[in-house]
Amino acid sequence: MKKLITIIFLAMFPFTCGFMNIAHRGDNEQGKYAEHSFAAYDRAVCAQVDYLELDLQESSDHVLVVSHDDNLSRVFGVDEAIEKNNFKKLTNYRNQSGESIHSLEEVFQRYQNNPQVKFMLEPKGNGEDAKRIVELINKYHLQKRILFESFSSAALKKLARLVPKIPRTQLAGSYKATGHSQDFAASFYTADAANYLHDKNKKYMLWGVNSNKQMHKFLNPDKGVTGLLTDFPVRLAKILQENNHFRIYYQPVTFPTENLAANLKLNNGHQVKADQVKLVNNRLWYHVQPNMWLNEQNLAHHDSLALRAQVGLVKVDQATPVWTDLSFKKSAGKTLRAHSHWNYFAVAKYHGKRVYNLGGNQWIK
After folding, report:
1. How many alpha carbons lie under 13 Å from residue 42 in its C-beta half-sphere?
2. What is the pLDDT of residue 178?
3. Quick count: other Cβ atoms within 10 Å of Cβ 234?
4. Residue 240: CA atoms inside 13 Å, Cβ hemisphere, count?
5. Which of the residues 11, 40, 132, 293 could staple to 28 if both were Cys, CB 3.0 to 4.6 A apart?
6. Ranges under pLDDT 70 in the chain
7. Cβ distance 234 to 279 under 8 Å?
8. What's the rounded Cα separation, in Å, for the pair 244 and 212?
9. Sequence-separated (6 or more) residues with CB below 8 Å from residue 363
10. Nearest to residue 219, comparing CAs of 205, 231, 201?
11. Between vectors from CA 29 to CA 23 and to CA 30, what angle results, nearest 5°?
12. Would you state the pLDDT for residue 289?
């Protein structure tokens, strides 16, 4: 019996020791917190995730910024293309967390002195910004804290040439064609992919796994999944703590205090420097000098009428024009037909009425 238990443990060991909790755009909880905001990142850091997943874009003056979209409309409500504006102008706008867009360098600076914080970076397009990304990684000596990801084989090939020792993950496509990457990630699960990647000693990750039920399902070592990219990494961290397979590695205790270097703006307009953050009862607390803890309610808040990320389905009863942002002044050049249904990704108030973002710079009212 003892031998059998040992064999079972060794079979489970790669999964129990190496399962990755990856914060997809931070702990944004599908819109409760602004994606790619420091609020979302700090929550994920407090949960001790394995990686913060960062989408990268580049401003007109070649500053790398963290944003999934190449336009500010969905998250900031303004129709401004990132590549056509300099970084200073881009920082004039605020998301639902009251934050401006952040540069990759600002993110690195915030967590540079916390070696537990690692970054999963997705270059834009075919890796046109790869060289600048590598320069920034080298500047902050983060080579051992980076994992690359990309849908583009050209980008992965370029990164493999520039920094061969930094691991790479192919997003989607064929799991059998991961030539320039060590790992593979997809939005859906197949046993064939799990078996193939296991035989090739490659990690198999899934994104879009957000429900408790799904998390428990893919934590089962029999599934062969080695990591999840989730909008709810705090939720996943708690499940990892409670899961029998992982209990010996994740102690069921309160999330510990984490180091950071942050400039915080308070409700009264004053700025303070924080050197630590912790998550208590699902609320962020920041340590500032002289030896004081402030909770997130002490920070400057967003406008209650500002847009909020939210996913759903909306029906339009009549022919409805599409606009590029919340000013509703510039047409997107299309009209939705009457009695049609559309997925939306953000909501806001306009003259007291609810308006919807249909993805990118597309708004209807």
Report:
1. 29
2. 87
3. 21
4. 25
5. 40
6. 1-18, 244-254, 302-305
7. yes
8. 15
9. 73, 322, 323, 324, 325, 326, 328, 332, 355, 356, 357
10. 205
11. 105
12. 85
Summarize pLDDT for 285-343 with one digit per residue, the tens. 999 988 999 999 898 776 655 799 999 999 999 999 999 999 999 999 999 999 999 99
pLDDT one-digit tens code per residue, 81-108: 999 999 999 999 999 999 999 999 999 9
Contact yes or no for 70/53 (Cβ under 8 A): no
Q: Which residues contact 234 (CB under 8 A, 6 or more apart)?
A: 27, 29, 43, 44, 46, 47, 279, 282
Are 277 and 287 within 8 A, CB to CB?
yes
- The residues that bridge with 207 in the sheet, in sequence order, are 229
In 3D space, the residue among 38, 54, 206 whose CA is nearest the CA of residue 129 turns out to be 54
Two structure tokens written together for 11: 């079979």
Rounded Cα distance between 269 and 300, Å, is: 7
Phi, psi values for residue 84, rounded to 5°: -105, 5
Cis peptide bond prior to 14, omega within 30° of 0? no
3-state secondary structure of 38: helix
What are the C-alpha distances in Å from 330 to residues 279, 344, 349?
A: 42, 19, 18
The pLDDT, as a whole number, for residue 161 is 96
- Can you read off the two tokens belonging to residue 316? 């339009």
Cis? peptide before 290, omega within 30° of 0: yes
